[in-house]
Amino acid sequence: MRYDAVVIGAGHNGLTCAAYLARAGRSVLVLERAEVVGGATRSAAVFPGYAARLSAYSYLVSLLPAQIRDELGLDLTLHRRRYSSYTPHGAHGILIDDGDPARTAADLGTDAGAWKDFSDLTGHVARQVFPTMLEPLRSAGEMAGRVGDQAWSEMFERPLSETLERRFARDVVRGIAATDALIGTFTDLRDSARLANRCLLYHVIGGGTGHWDVPVGGMGQVSDALLEAATAAGAQVHCASEVVSLETDGDLARVRTADGCVVESDAVFVAAAPAVLDRLRRRPGTEPSPEGAQLKINLLLSRLPSLKDPRTTAEQAFSGTFHINEGYAALQRAYAQADAGQIPAVPPCEVYCHSLSDPSILGEELQAQGAHTMTLFGLHMPARLFAADPDGARARATEATLASVDSVLDEPLTDCLLAAETLEVRTPLDVEASLGMPRGHIFHRDLQWPFAESAGEVGAWGVETADANVYLCGAGARRGGGVSGIPGRNAAAAHLGEDALVT
Asked: Where are the domains positioned within the chain?
């Protein structure tokens, strides 16, 4: 078989790339190792026998540009959350309520002014950086000129710890700001490599506003809409087709699948991790091995758990991100314990109830019963903690994490389960087994700055590889990470030219 382009991986980025290539008139074949498309964005009945469709891995959208939605004509509705977050703290918590600035300021207390100033800073950076995400890479100097000296110093040049410690007086508020710098990222906030800064940046620039939206119908609606766009344009998608090798001379590529099929193409687009590409090319790894660092727990509840805070309803608290033991010192303590090879004694984590914003993911009977989904994201749970004893470590990490959750609730979380079997736990190793992400790294590798870091990268797209006709179009590309479609579009642009994409 021969195609103009082969896309390896039918996650949302691979489907985005395929849609653009096919719309430009190229013959496109998408090869997916799993039996269904969507990758980390697919929705499924995680708990057999219960009419609840949720994504086991991702649940919010921020980085998907309106430009991609418009160009591909995606049938996708996004719901804006009113409540950004809730953090239990003492007798009363901190509710970040976009609909009630006075309540937010009162809860933040002495840090209210600093919070507004920091939000203004990140908002300014978002407005300057996000519009460049679908353009050729700019130099660091040009990006610095766009954001200005103060923002460049605080968010790009200095370790994030310096900014947070200088701006905020209260440990709990520092922690609220810091958590966005640690999602899917295992690092010390004081690390001079500034990995936390990069992670924070991707969490605050989405759409030029930093807002995180709920996809109505579940995260699977994103990949379903992209699949429709790709196939409507003529792309062919073959599931249960695992790619085992990739050969290329720079002009003609040959992709071989596990069943012995060989496909020739002019170009190959890899929506898998760079480490996976190295394996397919049968060459040594080109960078340090990635390592995921999150514990994922999915739950189906009969009701929302009760809070200790009488001023805040469960609906308010769980509609946004519910922070659990994520104070600034607690985050650093958990990192140090995990870095030393120990499951954190009090794991920091956060939970969110998609069904509060979008009950359509539940069947009518579950809705009538007052049931809700809950997804938990545990920080500082690196893959190394599970390597020697995967099952035992999973059990210990789960026990410690649920105890952490219970410490901030007015009742045990497990008392609210719909049934004993409606709790599912996934470690980084489980993520690797399910999705092929090396050691469960949800960004495929450490996030990179969204600008050129060398003169040779300026004007490129951040998707190029050592082979002229092979491109990264997944989260491991520069400006990858998160649910965005950005690297998928950029890879198509790198191959075809920007003008060929808009038809």
From this structure: 2-40+63-76+215-289+446-500, 116-211
pLDDT one-digit tens code per residue, 34-66 = 999 999 999 999 999 999 998 889 889 999 999
* Distant-in-sequence, close-in-space partners of 32: CB < 8 Å, separation ≥ 6: 9, 10, 14, 237, 238, 239, 240, 241
Q: How far is CA 415 from CA 75, 162, 303, 409, 412, in A?
A: 38, 41, 9, 11, 5
Residue 176 has pLDDT above 80, yes or no: yes
Class assignment of domain 2-40+63-76+215-289+446-500? alpha beta
DSSP character for 282?
Answer: T
User: Scanning the structure block, which residue is given the tokens 């045990």?
Assistant: 412
Buried b (16+ CB within 10 A) or exposed e, 31-46: bbbbeebbbbbbbeeb
Spatial distance between the Cα atoms of 378 and 60, rounded to a whole number of angstroms: 16
**pTM for the whole structure:** 0.96
Ranges assigned E (strand) in 279-355: 295-301, 321-324, 349-352
Return the DSSP state at 103. H
Tens of pLDDT along 202-260? Answer: 999 999 999 999 999 999 999 999 999 999 999 999 999 999 999 999 999 999 999 99
Max Cα distance, the chain (Å): 66
